[in-house]
Amino acid sequence: MATAQPSRLKYLSLGVLVVQTTSLVLTMRYSRTLKEDGPRYLASSAVVSAEILKIFTCTLLVLMENNYSVRAMALLLKEEIVNKPMETMKLAVPAGIYTLQNNLLYVALSNLDAATYQVTYQLKILTTALFSVSMLGKKLGLYQWLSLLLLMAGVTLVQWPSESAGEQKVLTAGSQLVGVVAVLMACMSSGFAGVYFEKILKETKQSVWVRNIQLGLFSFVFGFIGMMVYDGRSVTQSGMFQGYNAITCTVVALQAVGGLVVAVVIKYADNILKGFATSVSIILSTLISYFLLNDFNPTSLFFLGAVLVIAATFLYSYKGKPASSTFKV
Predict the structure, then answer these.
(1) Does the keyword Thylakoid apply (predicted)?
(2) N or C: which end of the chain has fewer CB within 10 A?
(3) 205 lies in a domain?
(4) Are 224 and 55 in contact (CB under 8 A)?
(5) For residue 327, is pLDDT > 60?
(6) Within a domain: residue 3?
């Protein structure tokens, strides 16, 4: 009975992550291309706002875990955050990298079309696997490596850009290069930070929400400093929340919730399985683009890619259980 609940949480969190990732990509891309009167919202401000919302949400969850006792929550946070400075400082590393990654994703989606962005960003699955092997000592069998290759091939085929004459997008070579470099840097940072955070979570019995408060505090500080360094003049002139609207608030909320869902996935599953959930969301976002936005025409490559992704998911899941059982949660 005890193992059934983590198993349910694992698949529930993976399902929520698929929905969250799909919604985030679509709304973030839409928000960065939407033409409006007045200034566009600052990406650095959105990153900071998401961290504030995440800290607030985690604080409420910790309060719930302590039977809504403010005193008990305050004592717990003091004990875990203030009285254990070395443990707290360990999260400064992934917090800084996550902050950089979140800003890079806005840069990428401002300079690349969705297909190029999504295909390239799936390289984080491979970087995560490599960091999992080197940092966690995780052993991947031949079938698991094959599943990773199948996944990469499938996602590439699903998102292979169609050469449609009516879909000509003018992108300068400079902006294209900026976008690709941003995605590649995000892939490396995502792989390293995700595995580092997984290592911390699986080595402790501490509440995942307390860990996220610690992570969020560092991320807020790093994000705020970055915002003032790069967008300080705009913030001073028009305020931190300039250009915010319903779409912007939705992006911020999805990004904040996404961080929490990812933490749960890492706690009860593992980081590579999280990558597969993200890949499934790419197929969903493609379908949504076709049926709702009418800007995608499925081809034989799309169907072949979808079959490869599904096959890769089953292949990894079959061989992944013995490997992941070496971790003690």
Answers:
(1) no
(2) N
(3) yes
(4) no
(5) no
(6) no
Higher pLDDT among residues 166 and 292, named by residue: 292
Secondary structure (3-state) at 86: helix
Q: Output the CA torsion sign for 59, 65, 71, 72.
A: negative
Q: Rounded to whole angstroms, how far apart are CA atoms 329 and 156?
A: 34
Range of the domain at 139: 19-31+40-160+168-317
Contact 124, 282 (CB under 8 A): no
Measured CA angle at 204 (ends 201, 206), to 5 deg: 90
CA–CA dist 312, 286 (Å, integer): 19
- pLDDT tens string 13-56: 677 777 777 888 788 878 887 777 777 899 999 999 999 999 99
The pTM of the full predicted model, rounded to 2 decimals, is 0.75
Domain count, the chain: 1
Which residues lie closer than 8 Å to 158 by C-beta, 6 or more apart?
A: 282, 283, 286, 301, 302, 305, 306, 309
The span from the CA of 213 to the CA of 218, in Å, is 9
End-to-end Cα distance, the chain:
16
Instruction: Tell me the angle at which helices 173-202 and 246-268 cross, rounded to the nearest 10 degrees.
Output: 40
Identify whether 199 is part of a domain: yes
Measured between alpha carbons, how far is 236 from 240 in angstroms, rounded to an integer?
Answer: 8
Sequence-separated (6 or more) residues with CB below 8 Å from residue 179: 107, 108, 110, 111, 112, 116, 117
Q: Yes or no: say if 193 and 97 are a contact pair by the CB < 8 Å rule.
A: yes
